[in-house]
Write a structure and sequence with these properties.
This protein is α+β, with helices and mostly antiparallel strands. It is 25% helix and 32% strand. The chain contains 9 helices and 21 strands.
Length: 410
């Protein structure tokens, strides 16, 4: 994620741009322009371009980039005036570093089109939905169970649970809507509620690389959304845990059953008798894997077939594109709601005289009133296609020097 530069560093960099006459790059119409400041930066910036810029007008917003000690910096200016090769603009509020793209963007390319298809089946289902979800293969867990045998899987899970817990309950939200505090927070977060001991409190941190647990901080935020006054959060958290102890639960875990971006239900396991060890992270991991296999079993047994989205190509409107990724827009719809971070899409980029096929991964998304916007990173583009795209976008052959100048930090 690009990082805004703090004001003191920003002022230093803008002064250095003028003092050292550092070249600033602007790319438009497959042409690279080099700007240099011809006056010290105050409330505005005045650049001299290495050539006149066709089509640039006042109020145009343009993206600029420069390299300072191998750190790529980007910023956006709104043009105040342009005459031949002199461009004036207000000084930008922010400069950005630590770019999450590898090459400079080219905005609104009218001669490019892109078509996407989902990798694998996608679904539109009536279950609670989360904005981020963990992807990954089931792996070794599939070696010991026939996923087509749903009842056999449930029996195997029940047998394992009896060895480490007092009991369990499995709920699918198709028949039951989230109602209890535990059900609602699972449905909203897609994370596990884990209390190794009701004599203690929520976990303070999450050891999993892709965060899976409801920590105390997450639980407190949830309570605030339900109307709990911030002054009473400590007592509300303590009361929630004490109520479990008073009800006879000594160790408690609620594991969501996730299918793509949907929370389709959960598995609740508990200890309410002496002689059993409190739950640990190994137990939570095992239950997480059982839940993953259960969701897969439901899928291959046709449980979600009625919600399958027909996987036809759809066209996104390219907002900007670089040699390493693109940002596209798509109207709000059931299809766009399935375009989540970490989703992988097969795409066909239609360039004049050529068509490029590869895979893209959604790395960020945002929206306005009418459209969703999806930032994608190219994953496996063939080297010859990347060279062609680079030369097409930037109007020059790819060289090592260009790579070092316009490469951002991923």
């Amino acid at each position: 994620m690009a990082t805004p530069i703090k004001r003191i560093e920003k002022d230093f960099l803008l002064k250095t741009l003028y003092d050292e006459q550092i070249p600033v790059m602007y790319i438009a119409g497959r042409t690279e322009y080099i700007f240099r400041l011809i006056q010290p930066v105050k409330s505005d910036m005045t650049f001299k371009s290495d050539r006149p810029i066709a089509g640039l007008k006042p109020r145009n917003k343009i993206d600029l980039m420069f390299d300072y000690k191998s750190q790529v910096i980007i910023f956006t200016i709104e043009v105040s005036s342009v005459k031949d090769d002199i461009v004036t603009a207000l000084t930008p509020e922010y400069l950005f570093k630590n770019l999450d793209r590898s090459y400079s963007r080219v905005s609104n390319p009218e001669d490019l089109k892109v078509q996407f298809t989902f990798q694998g089946d996608r679904y539109s289902l009536h279950y609670p939905k989360v904005q981020e979800y963990e992807t990954g293969k089931i792996g070794e867990w599939m070696n010991d169970v026939d996923p087509k045998n749903l009842q056999g899987l449930i029996d195997q899970m029940a047998s394992w649970i009896r060895g480490c817990a007092s009991g369990y309950k499995m709920v699918i939200f198709k028949e039951v809507k989230p109602a209890t505090t535990e059900e609602r927070i699972l449905a909203e977060t897609g994370k596990s509620l884990y209390l190794p001991s009701t004599l203690a409190n929520f976990p303070q941190s999450d050891p999993y690389p892709k965060k899976r647990l409801i920590t105390e901080e997450i639980f407190r935020r949830y309570l605030e959304t339900t109307g709990v006054d911030p002054l009473y959060l400590d007592s509300a958290v303590s009361r929630f845990v004490k109520q479990k102890f008073d009800a006879g639960f000594f160790s408690d875990a609620w594991i969501p059953v996730l299918f793509q971006e949907y929370v389709i239900g959960y598995i609740h396991v508990w200890i309410n008798q002496e002689g059993k060890l409190p739950f640990d992270y190994n137990m939570v991991e095992t239950m997480y894997q059982f839940a993953k296999v259960l969701a897969y079993s439901l899928k291959i047994n046709g449980y979600f077939n009625s919600g399958r989205i027909k996987n036809e190509p759809f066209e996104g409107k390219i907002v900007d594109i670089s040699a390493s990724g693109l940002l596209f827009a798509y109207p709000h719809s059931g299809l766009s709601s399935a375009l989540l971070p970490d989703s992988e899409l097969a795409f066909r980029l239609i360039v004049p005289r050529r068509s490029i096929r590869a895979t893209a991964k959604i790395v960020r998304r945002y929206k306005d009133n009418a459209m969703g916007y999806f930032g994608c990173r190219f994953l496996d583009m063939a080297p010859e296609d990347m060279r062609f795209l680079f030369e097409y976008l930037y109007g020059k052959p790819f060289t090592d020097t260009d790579a070092s100048f316009i490469a951002g930090q991923v």
